[in-house]
């Protein structure tokens, strides 16, 4: 006959068998992965908001295709869609059938100068020059032209002429790479 | 000597305590549940990656405005030769009827001795070479846009190559177009004048005229 103490030990061992195994990997440590993902997401969001390449194409704004390979560059962005002219996503003039209304040009229909576009571009020029005086970047008079493929040459040259009047004389035409 | 009953009760109490401790460790863990947050982040990262991939294929074409006041400040100034070498001033016009090529003081006539230099590939419609964004029905019966462009780019390449042979150092070209010539045709003309899809024109790489000066069209 076993002593009660020994019996009790035996019973304890039996009951312990019913306990869950002590598990050291009960759940993964996902904190480092979180860190990585957060850094990635911040990086993507930042590169998204800064880039002038961020052109949303639509039926009204379809860039022409070209074999050019020159890298894109940050500058004041002038967009010509089939319906409007925009400077840095601010609409300055409406476009109808490939023309802007003669009343907003300086000297009527035969003029090349689009008044509201000139005003806004001059503001940008002043801003960039002020920045240059304070030692932030250089004013090189560059504009990026983002234009729809069907825009007639006349409208394009009107925009370029107006940009030239606002001291922007280097044009970069944004195109899609055809490959 | 303890009774058997008392000993067993002690053991039961101990086992209950151990059970409770194990369960608590499993449930609480002492930290936030980050899994749903991780789901959101993973979705956003994949979404951003997918949208970036569709925007990448962009490029620039550098062009300049014509400058009259200060020729020394002109864009091609750094490669200007000595004054005795005559400037070519190559001018290419994409007109309604075809391409017109001119140099300083002379206009290049077409093969039949008339303008334009390079004729349209198709008969003119309302005195214009057909260059427009048309529409056609694709295989699934849906309309899709298609470029109809009858300007003779191959002919232009041939002529421009000849000119480049005679003036190997020239890189500058003045480009004009008629009022309603679409932007796509102007860009394509620039591509043809540049010759190759090169990044920096050194001359040995088959590059033709890459310094484009856009000029307002003639009315």
Topology diagram in text:
The complex is a heterodimer of chains A (179) and B (219).
Chain A lengths: L3 H14 L13 H20 L14 E2 L9 E5 L3 E4 L2 E7 L2 E2 L14 H19 L8 E6 L5 H13 L4 E8 L2
Helix pairs in contact in A: 3-4
Chain B lengths: L3 H24 L7 H21 L2 E7 L26 E4 L3 E6 L2 E2 L10 E2 L11 E7 L5 E7 L3 H14 L5 E6 L5 H12 L16 E4 L5
Parallel strand pairs in B: 1-9, 2-8, 8-9
Antiparallel strand pairs in B: 2-3, 3-4, 3-5, 6-7
Could you characterize what this model shows?
The complex is a heterodimer of chains A (179) and B (219). Chain A has 4 helices and 7 strands. The radius of gyration of chain A is 33 Å and the shape is rod-shaped. A 7-stranded mixed β-sheet of chain A has the order 1-7-6-2-3-4-5, with helices on one face. With 179 residues, chain A is of the alpha/beta class. Chain A has a domain at 65-177: Nucleotidyltransferase, domain 5. Chain B is an alpha/beta fold and 219 residues long. Chain B folds into 2 domains: 4-51; 88-214, Nucleotidyltransferase, domain 5, CATH 3.30.420.270. Helix content of chain B is 32%, strand content 21%. Chain B is built from 4 helices and 9 strands, in the order ααβββββββαβαβ. Chain B has helices spanning 4-27, 35-55, 153-166, 183-194; strands spanning 58-64, 91-94, 98-103, 106-107, 118-119, 131-137, 143-149, 172-177, 211-214. In chain B, strands 1, 2, 3, 4, 5, 8 and 9 form a 7-stranded mixed β-sheet that branches. In chain B, strand 3 (98-103) and strand 4 form a beta hairpin. The longest helix of chain B has 24 residues, at 4-27. The model of chain B is unreliable at 69-82 (pLDDT under 50). Chains A and B meet through helix 1, helix 2, strand 1, helix 4 and strand 7 of A and helix 1, helix 2, strand 1 and helix 4 of B. Strand 7 (170-177) of chain A pairs antiparallel with strand 1 (58-64) of chain B, so a sheet runs across the interface.
């Amino acid at each position: 006959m076993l002593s009660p103490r020994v019996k009790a030990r035996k019973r304890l061992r039996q009951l312990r068998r019913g306990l869950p195994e002590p598990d050291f990997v009960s759940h993964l440590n996902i904190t480092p992965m979180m860190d990585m993902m957060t850094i990635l997401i911040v990086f993507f969001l930042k590169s998204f908001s800064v880039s002038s390449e961020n052109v949303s194409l639509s039926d009204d704004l379809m860039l022409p295709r070209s074999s050019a390979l020159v890298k894109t560059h940050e500058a004041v962005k002038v967009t010509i869609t089939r319906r409007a002219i925009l400077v840095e996503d601010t609409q300055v003039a409406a476009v109808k059938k490939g023309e802007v209304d003669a009343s907003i040009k300086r000297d009527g229909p035969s003029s090349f100068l689009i008044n509201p576009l000139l005003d806004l571009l001059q503001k940008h020029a002043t801003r960039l020059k002020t920045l240059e005086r304070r030692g932030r970047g250089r004013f090189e008079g560059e504009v990026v032209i983002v234009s729809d493929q069907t825009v007639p040459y006349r409208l394009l040259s009107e925009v370029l002429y107006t940009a030239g009047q606002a001291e922007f004389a280097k044009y970069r035409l944004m195109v899609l790479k055809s490959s | 000597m303890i009774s058997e009953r008392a000993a067993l009760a002690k053991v039961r109490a101990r086992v209950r305590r151990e059970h409770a401790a194990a369960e608590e460790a499993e449930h609480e863990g002492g930290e936030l549940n980050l899994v749903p947050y991780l789901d959101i982040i993973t979705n956003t990262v994949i979404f951003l990656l997918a949208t970036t991939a569709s925007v990448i294929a962009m490029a620039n074409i550098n062009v300049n405005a014509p400058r009259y006041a200060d020729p020394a400040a002109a864009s091609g100034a750094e490669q200007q030769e000595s004054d005795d070498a005559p400037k070519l001033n190559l001018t290419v016009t994409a007109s309604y009827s075809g391409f017109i090529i001119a140099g300083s003081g002379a206009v290049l006539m077409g093969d039949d001795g008339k303008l334009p230099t390079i004729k349209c590939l198709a008969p003119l419609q309302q005195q214009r070479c057909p260059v427009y964004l048309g529409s056609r029905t694709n295989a699934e019966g849906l309309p899709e846009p298609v470029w109809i462009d009858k300007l003779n780019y191959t002919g232009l390449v041939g002529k421009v190559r000849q000119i480049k042979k005679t003036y190997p150092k020239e890189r500058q070209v003045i480009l004009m177009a008629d009022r309603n010539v679409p932007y796509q045709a102007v860009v394509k003309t620039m591509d043809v004048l540049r010759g190759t899809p090169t990044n920096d024109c050194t001359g040995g790489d088959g590059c033709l005229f890459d310094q484009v000066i856009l000029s307002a069209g003639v009315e």
